[in-house]
Amino acid sequence: MELIGLYFVGCALLVAAGTAKAIHPDDTARALAAAIPLGLQSMRRLVRAGAVAEVALGVTALDLPRPWPAGLVALSFA
After folding, report:
1. How far is CA 37 from the centre of its chain?
2. Cα 29 vs. chain centroid, distance in angstroms?
3. Residue-wise pLDDT tens for the chain (78 aa)?
4. Are the C-beta atoms of residues 19 and 57 closer than 8 Å to each other?
């Protein structure tokens, strides 16, 4: 059974969600700030850094559909 289509959808979702969080990190930062005692500005930077990593993983996994990026994609959804 070939599941490459679902894999590509997952990668595209990582890119789309990461891009949205990188552009507008405020909602995620406020949600995390309620649980983690950091300032809102620090949390925004942390969310933006995580979003950039999310986009990088999605683009890398789209470009190189190999076992190690696929494992990282699966781990990001776990």
Report:
1. 22
2. 14
3. 588 999 999 999 999 999 999 999 999 999 998 898 888 899 999 999 999 999 999 999 999 999 999 999 999 998
4. no
| pTM metric for this prediction | 0.88
Q: Kindly state the tokens that stand for 21.
A: 């969080």
Would you say how long the chain is, in residues? 78
CA 28-65-48 angle, to 5 degrees, is 20
Beta carbons of 57 and 49 less than 8 angstroms apart: no
Which residues are CB-neighbours of 3 under 8 A, at least 6 positions away?
A: none
